[in-house]
From TrEMBL:
This is Sporulation integral membrane protein YlbJ. The keyword Transmembrane applies. Keywords: Membrane, Transmembrane, Transmembrane helix. The keyword Membrane applies. The chain crosses the membrane at residues 48-71, 78-101, 121-142, 149-169, 209-230, 242-266, 286-312, 319-341, 373-394. Residues 43-133 form the Nucleoside transporter/FeoB GTPase Gate domain. It comes from the Bacteria.
Length: 399
């Protein structure tokens, strides 16, 4: 009882402190809000919306069930999750956070996976998309496209390692389900049965997909703006500096420059801001910057974790296993960066041993083109999608 009251006092005090800071620094809060809104408006919404809608339609048509049966012999022995986990994993890597959580919850709602399987699945399907890793971080922040190779290998490699570790999670509880044999005929039959069971006409299925996807993206946008403001206010009130004192002790033990402590704290709240600050930190080596950024990319930041927690709250999937997996993936990613730095970056991607310079220059050009596309057309895509959402919602409300 006493601990519950303490939590109540702590939460209430934190919210009151945030409100006072918001009133005391309205201009800084507005600037931070605009920064978060622009991030969501220009890139996040238009880049995630197509993946969310397509995924909803694929689930409704039974295609995910088809993929699940085909991937069952691979996913079950390795990660102890059904084959449909392969769909979540691939969509999560393609579209980035928090897509893995959204699709996992969707499969749980369809009863295609158990709660334990969902908790294992969401733990290792949380990742940043390649566009963010290569375009925003490697090219945008570090102006070094080759660095994207290091971030990608460590990031997705850490995903696999987390999946292998989490396969043992919950093994003490009794479960059903064994790996089945590869069968295209069985996969097709399962897809057909799933499509027949979903009695919604195509028009309603598409409308539901649009509404569900935009509702999720509106929630994501709110969290991005909120944590952008929180991060800015913590910095203004020097709370970040005090938190950095604890991190400096850890960094000294790990032989990491303490100059990275404050950017690291910012990255714990919002990894985009933290990665940007780390890239501009002077007096540190590129390897040290890369190790810290790799951890932040894998950890995801409290902003993304809040998004995931909100999505998981709609189901019986517990959040703590996901949080544990984020720390685990951060450690794996940082260690992998250390191991692959010399053999891959220094010996193959740097200096005179650049065997494929044209390839990397092309990648940088392509990434810049994609980023410019979202910057130019992202707001229009967002406006159009919101108008469609309002029309569909208004029509269904009137009926």
């Amino acid at each position: 009882m006493q601990s519950s009251k303490f939590v109540t006092i702590l939460l209430a005090s934190s919210v009151m402190l945030f409100a006072i800071a918001l009133i005391s620094h309205p201009k800084e809060a507005l600037d931070a809000s605009i920064y978060g809104l622009n991030t969501w408006w220009d890139v996040v919404f238009p880049s995630l919306l197509p993946f969310f809608i397509i995924a909803e339609v694929l689930i409704g048509f039974g295609v995910v069930k088809f993929i699940g049966v085909l991937l069952e012999p691979f996913m079950r022995p390795l990660f102890h999750v059904p084959g449909v986990g392969g769909f979540v994993w691939s969509m999560g890597m393609a579209s980035g956070n928090p897509a893995g959580a959204k699709f996992t919850v969707r499969l749980r709602e369809e009863n295609q996976i158990t709660r334990l399987e969902a908790e294992r699945l969401v733990a290792f399907t949380s990742c940043a998309n390649p566009l963010f890793i290569f375009g925003a971080v490697a090219v945008g922040f570090f102006h070094n496209p080759e660095l994207g190779i290091i971030f990608a290998i460590s990031h997705y490699g850490a995903n696999i390692l987390v999946g292998l570790v989490m396969r043992f999670y919950g093994k003490t509880e009794k479960e059903k389900g064994e790996a089945t044999k590869f069968s295209i005929i069985e996969a097709f039959n399962q897809m057909h049965e799933t499509r027949i069971a979903d009695k919604r006409p195509i028009g309603k299925l598409l409308g539901d997909a649009v509404i569900s996807s935009i509702n999720t993206l509106l929630m994501i946008g709110g969290f991005i703006i909120l944590f952008s403001v929180v991060n800015r206010l913590l910095s203004i009130m020097n709370i970040t500096d005090y938190l950095a004192l604890c991190i400096q002790l850890l960094f000294k033990f790990l032989m990491i420059p303490i100059d990275l402590a404050i950017p690291f704290i910012s990255g714990l709240f919002e990894m985009t801001i933290g990665s940007d600050l780390i890239s501009t930190t002077t007096g540190v080596t590129l390897l040290q910057q890369s190790v810290v950024v790799s951890f932040l990319l894998a950890f995801g930041g409290f902003s993304i974790q809040a998004q995931v927690a909100s999505i998981l709250s709609k189901s019986d999937i517990r959040f703590l296993p996901f949080l544990f997996a984020r720390f685990l993936q951060g450690i794996f990613a940082a260690v992998l960066t250390l191991f692959i730095w010399e053999p891959i970056y220094e010996k193959n991607l740097q200096g005179e041993n650049l065997s494929q310079p044209t390839f990397f220059l092309l990648d940088q050009t392509q990434m810049t083109t994609i980023i410019d596309f979202f910057t130019q057309f992202g707001p229009m895509i967002t406006i159009f999608s919101l108008v469609v959402y309002i029309l569909i919602y208004a029509k269904r409300t009137s009926n």
